[in-house]
From TrEMBL, chain A:
It is found in: Cell membrane. The gene is urtC. It comes from Muricoccus vinaceus. Keywords: Cell membrane, Membrane, Transmembrane, Transmembrane helix. The chain crosses the membrane at residues 17-36, 56-77, 84-102, 134-157, 164-182, 214-233, 253-281, 336-360. It is a multi-pass membrane protein. Pfam families: BPD_transp_2 (PF02653). The lineage of its organism: Bacteria, Pseudomonadati, Pseudomonadota, Alphaproteobacteria, Acetobacterales. The keyword Ribonucleoprotein does not apply. This is Urea ABC transporter permease subunit UrtC. InterPro entries: ABC_transp_permease (IPR001851), ABC_transptr_urea_perm_UrtC (IPR017778), LivM-like (IPR043428). Its main location: membrane.
Length: 365, 517
């Protein structure tokens, strides 16, 4: 993509360098936020706690958007269930955080989280074992979404379920998971989910330091994801994926195993979404089955569409801009937000198929 | 002597000679006497089977009955004559434990013959639960007089239960035989209970339990089937429009659920409009059907001509765009009508339950929804098979360019087809307003299931939609009892995924050129 832009960039400065510079500048500005948060109250440059945690949340959303863009923008796999991978990663982290509460719960049980005591559990269910170790929980935040993506992807791609069929199937998947996680007897806290977290890696969560740490962790994840995606799409793998997007049967007839390529990128994308969810949960302090709602997944898709699918910067840009508008509108005119969001769906698909990035490119030309 | 005097006084007061033969009037004054006389009077009142005795005895047991000399006063009226009587100066009739126990029996017996069928039913229920052989004669008398079938059924069960605890084996056998003919869980539990106390009657009891079990299994299967068909008909209604817009046109319309919702709100608006003219009100539901078809159809035509037309050939974008439209529609309705549920009343002919032989209960409105769904299906099939519009539609589906060269205005056909599918969604909304809450997010709950039906049944096939919806509905209800509603949904989803492995194009796949599209 950037090669095309480079050819038409004005006055000799390669557009590729411009984009890279913009990304680095953006990351640098974001990295400043927690530092500015340390300034004394009343200082003109001070950034509020709210801004830091909201921006941290957006960074996680941006990673989710990247994950969706990798599958949709490059391989043409539109998943309407990426919120499920995000939420599963979040639940893995939530389970770790719940275990860390230990005997400090309301009921003071040494092992069981409050909701289990309340529901009359005698001992920890087997699938909760090991979640008291941070590395294990992180591994699960990667593996569980990855495994789900593998199973759903494998079942779908091998029987050549493509396009809207796959979209609907993934939407049904996240819907079914939402219903399942709403149940109390699943052992995941029912509709209350997990909350009241105390600490992570020995740091109490409600401190400025913890907030800054999580913020930088999310930022590092975003930078890492951008780097990884850049690598994926600029190598041969990325070329094949784009070919699959544009002419799937032709790629298959050329002897490529389309199923494997699609499956690989879908699993990678699901894992990225899972990690984003895992960082999201300590930032917002709660995870509940509402995260599985099909609406969430489709909203994430529209971030990518608004930013510009098929460009990695676009996904990040879209996640930030749409969520900025959402945060602003839901406090000023909550009734208006759904109109604006719905309008975005219509406007972007009809008028701006390349999203904001496409708009900039056209201006540049 | 006292009674003779009372009678005389009474005769004078009421000037009603026939009263001498009236058991009620005869026994009533006894209540004003001593405890022994009271107990006797209560027994006789209970035996009289007179409906007038019930309120008197009830008042007596609740301490509300008053007396002045020998006159009994109930609710400021003389209980015997019904004439107004001053409660001032009257004293409360007191009773002791002996009278109280007599009262309990008498009340039960009187309720069995009360004028109110609900009260008789309740009495039969309490006799059933008390299980005493003493109730047998009273129940037999009551059954002989009973005319309401559902009360009679309950009384017979109570009689059988009472017989089961009778001392004589022959009477017990009678009871077992009758219980074995019933098909209720209660009868079964009763027999199992008797099994422990009557070792000599084991073969009879076991045979009776087995026959109940057989009937209960059948009843459960029939009810599951009905529930499944009911759910299936709802899915059919929601999916039928989708089968046309998605299946036939290849346009994925995520706002489909919102068209269903528009139909439901149209029903509400029509009903409110009919409120002004009372004779029209019972007809508001039938009137809503064409109204909802028009409203949703027009909305669909506007959506197709205004927006979807520009996105043909880009299904993923269409999906996102229509999702946005659905969001806007939902929010608009929420602002216009409020977020809370709106109530749509069912006409009288749709309410109540239908009781089939074998104790199978069927809710009428669900039955009507099944009938309605099938009618709509027939209508859709007829429109596609028999009309000029249907012919043009099929032609455009099969080969758009050749259809255009033959002089078919494909754009107009597209708009009409989409309007037709959306209109059917609107009619689905009318039906759903009868069994679900009319709220702005009414449609969201059905949209995913409907897509599943279309994919399962085979895209582009209305018969496939019928089989798919009914199949999924029944499957859901069959799994539900042992897995719970949520896991049933998850299981159905997994089954569909596995099914698609075998037949990627659904149950009824289109053959030929159209299938390659």
């Amino acid at each position: 993509m950037s090669e095309i832009a480079a050819a038409s960039a004005p006055r000799g400065i390669p557009a590729r360098l411009l984009v890279r510079g913009a990304i680095l500048a953006g990351i640098a500005v974001l990295a400043l936020l927690p530092l500015l948060n340390q300034l004394p109250l009343g200082s003109a440059l001070r950034v509020s706690d709210f801004t830091v945690s909201v921006t941290g949340k957006w960074i996680c959303y941006a990673v989710l958007a990247l994950a969706i863009d990798l599958a949709w923008g490059y391989a043409g796999i539109l998943s309407l269930g990426h919120g499920a991978f995000f939420a599963l990663g979040g639940y893995a982290m939530g389970m770790h955080l719940m275990r860390l509460i230990g005997p400090r719960g309301v009921y003071g049980h040494p092992v069981l989280p409050d909701f289990m005591v309340f529901l009359g559990y005698r001992e920890l269910p087997w699938y909760w074992l090991g979640f008291d170790h941070f590395p294990y929980a992180m591994l699960m935040a990667l593996l569980v979404p990855g495994a789900l993506a593998f199973v759903v992807g494998w079942l779908s791609f091998r029987s050549r379920i493509t396009g809207v069929y796959f979209s609907i199937l993934t939407q049904a998947m996240t819907y079914a998971l939402m219903l399942a996680f709403f149940r109390n007897d699943m052992g995941f806290g029912g509709n209350n989910g997990f909350t009241d977290f105390k600490e992570l890696l020995g740091v109490p969560l409600n401190t400025q330091g913890a907030r800054a740490g999580l913020f930088y962790a999310a930022l590092a994840l975003l930078a890492g994801s951008l780097f990884l995606c850049r690598h994926v799409v600029s190598t041969k793998l990325g070329r094949v994926l784009v070919a699959v997007r544009d002419a799937e049967s032709r790629v298959r007839f050329l002897g490529y195993s389309v199923t494997s390529f699609k499956l690989a990128v879908f699993v990678l994308s699901g894992m990225m979404a899972g990690l984003a969810g895992a960082l999201y949960v300590p930032l917002v302090g709660i995870i509940n089955p509402g995260e599985f709602a099909p609406g969430n997944s489709i909203e994430a898709v529209i971030w990518v569409a608004v930013g510009g699918r098929g460009t990695l910067v676009g996904a990040v840009l879209g996640a930030f801009s749409v969520n900025a508008v959402k945060t602003w509108l839901t406090s000023f005119a909550p009734d208006l937000w759904l109109f604006v969001l719905g309008g975005l769906f219509v406007a972007v698909t009809l008028l701006l198929p390349q999203g904001l990035v496409g708009l900039f490119r056209r201006r540049a030309r | 002597m006292a009674r003779a005097l009372l009678l005389l006084a009474f005769l004078l007061a009421a000037a009603m000679p026939a009263a001498a033969q009236d058991a009620f009037l005869d026994a009533l004054p006894g209540l004003a006497g001593g405890f022994a006389a009271q107990a006797e009077a209560v027994e006789r009142l209970g035996a009289s089977g007179d409906p007038r005795a019930l309120p008197v005895l009830r008042a007596l047991s609740e301490g509300r009955l008053l007396k002045r000399d020998t006159a009994i006063i109930l609710n400021n009226a003389d209980a015997a004559t019904g004439q107004p009587a001053d409660a001032a100066g009257a004293e409360t009739v007191r009773i002791n434990n002996r009278v109280r126990s007599a009262l309990r029996g008498a009340l039960g017996r009187l309720q069995l013959v009360s004028a109110n069928p609900d009260e008789r039913l309740a009495a039969a229920e309490s006799v059933f639960r008390s299980r005493s052989a003493e109730n047998i004669p009273g129940l037999e008398a009551a059954i002989a007089r009973e005319s309401v079938p559902r009360v009679r059924e309950r009384q017979e069960l109570a009689l059988a239960a009472s017989r089961l605890v009778a001392p004589e084996a022959a009477v017990k056998r009678q009871g077992i035989a009758i219980l074995g003919g019933a098909s209720s869980e209660d009868a079964r539990a009763l027999l199992l209970e008797a099994r422990n106390t009557n070792p000599d009657l084991l073969p009879e009891i076991d045979a009776a339990v087995a026959s109940i079990d057989a009937r209960l299994t059948f009843k459960r299967a029939a009810e599951t089937l009905f529930q499944g068909l009911s759910l299936g008909s709802v899915l059919l209604l929601a999916a039928l429009g989708l089968a046309i817009t998605f299946g036939v046109m290849g346009v994925i319309n995520m706002a489909h659920g919102e068209f269903v919702m528009l139909g439901a709100y149209t029903t509400f608006v029509v009903q409110e409009a009919c409120r002004g003219t009372p004779w029209l009100l019972p007809w508001s539901l039938p009137l809503s059907v064409p109204a909802a078809f028009l409203v949703a159809g027009l909305a669909g035509a506007a959506l197709e001509r205004g927006l979807i037309r520009h996105l043909y050939g880009r299904p993923l974008e269409t999906l996102l765009m229509t999702f946005g439209v659905g969001m806007i529609l939902q929010q608009a309705v929420r602002l216009a009508f409020g977020a809370q549920n709106r109530e749509v009343i069912s006409p009288a002919w749709m309410q109540g339950t239908l009781s089939l032989p074998g104790g199978i209960l069927i809710t009428q409105n669900r039955l009507w929804v099944i009938v309605f769904a099938l009618l709509v299906l027939l209508l859709a099939i007829a429109a596609i098979r028999l009309t000029r519009f249907g012919l043009e539609m099929r032609a455009v589906v099969q080969n758009r360019r050749i259809a255009a060269t033959m002089g078919i205005r494909t754009g107009r056909v597209d708009a009409l087809t989409f309007a037709f599918g959306s209109g059917i969604a609107g009619m689905a909304g009318v039906a759903l307003s009868q069994i679900d809450n009319v709220s702005p997010n009414l449609g969201t709950g059905y949209i995913i299931d409907s897509f599943m039906v279309v994919v399962f049944g085979g895209v582009g096939s209305l018969v496939g939609t019928l089989v798919g919806s009914m199949g999924l509905g029944v499957l859901n209800k069959v799994i539900e009892p042992w897995a719970g509603a949520v896991l049933a949904k998850v299981a159905v989803l997994v089954i569909i995924m596995l099914f698609i492995q075998r037949r990627p194009r659904g149950l009824f796949a289109l053959k030929g050129r159209a299938a390659d599209a």
